[in-house]
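Lecture 7, part B: from sequences to assemblies.

Below are the input chains for today's worked example.
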Amino acid sequence: MLHIPLWKRVVIFGLVALGLLFAMPNLFYSRVEQHNDAVSAIEAQGATPEREAAAGVWPSWLPSTLVNLGLDLRGGAHLLAEVQVEDVYEERMNGYWPEVRDALREVRDEVGTIRRQDSEPGVLRVRISRPEGMATALEVVRALARPVVSLSGAGSNDIEVAGQGDEIVVQLTDAERRATDNRTLQQSLEIIRRRVDEVGTREPTIQRQGEDRILIQVPGIGSADELKELIGTTAKLTFHPVVRRTSEPPDNPGARNVAYPSMDEEGVWYVLEETPVVSGEELTDAQPAFDQNGSPSVTFRFNPSGGRKFGQYTAENVGSLFAIVLDEEVISAPQIREAIPGGSGQITGSFSVEESTQLAVLLRAGALPAEMTFLEERTIGPELGADSIEAGKIACIVAFVAVLVFMGLSYGWFGLLANVALILNIGMIFGLLSAIGATLTLPGIAGIVLTIGMAVDANVLVFERIREELKTARGPSRAIELGYEKALSAILDANITTFITATILFLMGSGPVRGFAVTLGLGILTSVFTAVFVTRALIVIWFDRRRPKTIEV
Amino acid sequence: MRLRLVPEETNWDFFRRAKATFGASMVLVVASIALFLVMGLNLGIDFRGGTTIRTESHSAVDVGEYRDALQALELGDISITEVFDPTFDADQHVAQVRIQAQEGEESVTAETVAEVEAALQEVDPTITFPSVESVGPKVSGELIQTAIIAVLLAIGAVLFYIWLRFEWQFSLGAVAALIHDVILTIGIFSILQIQFDLAIIAALLTIVGYSLNDTVVVFDRVRENLIKYKTKPLKEVMNLSINETLSRTVMTSGTTLIALIALLVLGGDVIRGFVFAMTWGVVVGTYSSVFVASNILLWLGTKRDWSKPDKTEGNQFANVDA
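Predicted structure of the full complex, as structure tokens:
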């Protein structure tokens, strides 16, 4: 007969309670947001009494994850950028030219004079005056090839060398292009992320999309234009000799000198010589490392010409300070301990491991590796978002109340039980949205409203079935049992098909549409759960207590 | 007293006018396709590139003046529509300006947008621009492709699932019904020239889901009754099944429509097109599950010997007990 074991009841209502617990912070949105901001500020910059107080507005033992609001609800800017990865091929080929030239010069007797020819971007064409020496020339140039550094491209070389008449044609191999594209994208992402983080807005989305695109969504920023300016500016890295270090912005740094503030040390300014010794374009790599004393440092490497300049300068200036400057801010100003020949060096300072890693990222990040074109730009004002939230809220409440009344009128006591389930259902949707950190968009709100309408479906199926069974079955308890049993296959089939479409929407859609797919999908899960388990448990508990001879559905 | 939208016992013959109802559906489908071909959809920038600027002002919108101000900039095709909504304040006047994708540019440049904004500000100094969206032709081409693939994929997946759970005839009936719904929705968007953007695709897919939801419930009962009444003619079994599920069909459509209408009226103009598509879809979806899906199933016929899969059919999920 009708009975649900205690452990099942505990599990069912436990899950409901858990869902509601996670949903609850959303009721106190601004307060929890304040708490979260304060907590992350304390983590990043240390505790202050104000931050402690702000963090205290919400008890730390309660869940504090919130439903993220999408751009269309919060306002902000959205950009879809395409990285011109071909720019880098061109650069790489230009980088190869001196090497190819030097290698061919060594076999001048056989190949004759060499001259670089104009060619399409990303291809290096070199003409030799003695075509009969082509075999030797190709061999020499091929010897310059390096293995591709990537998992998928392992085993192949980075350049492809072919002879066409009296011309040597050098270009990147497909494997190297793929590896280069990946690096370019990775680097662009890093730079953009760093630049957006600088503005300190909450939860920016910076994602790679497909082969060569980057999606950037920043809530709270004024316009897409502003965002474009922010990420479009080149990160300029330079190395300057330090004239002096001061504790206040100097009025007059002196002729051909500049004054930049320090990035980390507050209130510290550096007066530097205006002409840099070397600039970031000549840096080829930077990696976090440890110095001989085991403290964190950053190693870097210049290209040959940068290495020469750097070596010469450091040899002449042992003991003095030189500053590493990024976009008019001094990242660090270490002391030159010894001459640094060979184009590589190590920056030591009072770094933590994290700081050294970050500095390496900054150094590598430098300027954007390739240009970006913007394929999609959207700006949504915060007022429009606020209006949308307001309208969505009202519509939700009205829809909710109307459905509650309608169910109550149609099914009486059973309708009220279904209404309880519906309320729990909405709570659980918000709980799940918060728990998985999903983003709520305007279509997402529509998805919730749609769920309010459709969630009762499973209960309606069961109730209608119980009604039918009451006509034939022996007694109300049997009717309830049969009602649930027989309605189940329809409930599952109907919801699985809708869930399939929600999944496809999620996989194919983007932005707001994806938000809709998420709420629709979660709504299906919770509504089936509440109808099949929660309402049933409620009905069984009620039935056990009352033992009515007849029921009216 | 209980609210009853459908009498407790119904015994309506849903197939008496099968030719008329099915014919009407066919006519509507053909008309929708014709409308789509003749008038076309009012595609939003998501699908054809360009820029939309939403304007808001305290003084009334004069579309003519706006147009004159922008004509001088020579930006090609410009459309200006005033937006009305019951949720607006009395002195809130909103319009949407749409500019076509500019030759040789992926997305409209900041200068162009600034020019447009300046020109409009001259007409109306109180004007503000709550949203500016710009999509390049490259992306819009891809979006349209993805959208079509998504709809086809959804239909295909559903066809497969129903075939797996029922018989192929059910599957064809269900898919015919949802194609009917999708086409009719495209038809109404063509005739009313409501802007068709990405969100409408989401609505179309939801309609696919909802229409199916409804059809599956009817089919589930047909399957059950086919097992129960082994010798009854298919037509009677189907009529019985539709009658038995009618009350549920109307209740669920009712609650869903209540929610959607609340959103349609109060949800603001930004998602009105989206909600309208869904509301329309629920209405035609409910109609089609009875009059399109069932008619096709009836004409195709189905196997009558369900004795073998009986043991599992219909209750393979039913041993889940709470």
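Note for the exam: Chain B has two domains: 18-43+140-300, 50-135. Keep this in mind when comparing with the next example.
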